[in-house]
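Researcher: Here's a chain I'd like modeled. Treat it as a single chain, no partners, no ligands.
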Amino acid sequence: MKVLFLDIDGVLNSQNWFGYMQYCIKNDMYNRVMNFIETPDEYTEYKLTMLDDRAIANLNRIVDETGCKIVLSSSWRCLWNPSENNKILEALKLKGFKYDFYGLTPRIPQKDFGQERGIEIQAWIDKELEKNEIESFVILDDDNDMLPEQMNKFILINNQYGLSDIDVFKAIEILNK
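Model: Modeled as a single isolated chain. Structure tokens:
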């Protein structure tokens, strides 16, 4: 199995996206930010404004070309409730995301900051290895709080631009090795 660990803020949105969103809102072009999507509630509408269509299309390309499973490692996972229709996944799908999440990394409170995301990813990998073989994995994040042994599977996303074409090529290369 191939696995992609996904952060959202800085990866599926960016400083450029928020600048574009503010410009559209200021100029009464809110429908452009929303991509003319009707939303069922204000929470979903809010989440839609947080997601860049281009970055989501790039994420779809990675999954299309590798068949990887997506594990949410973003702090957005704290809002996840698998027992009900999840608003985060609903918002992603309204913006063009074609897949479901395979899982979520655990929350492991840390006394010292530094490698907390990497520790949570490693905990997920260790548990998953009890039942499935992991052929390869990649981590997409705009923070570098990974373990040293994860660095060759880690792509540091520039939060000015979000998930770029170059990042897509690197992720596909790592997953398909």
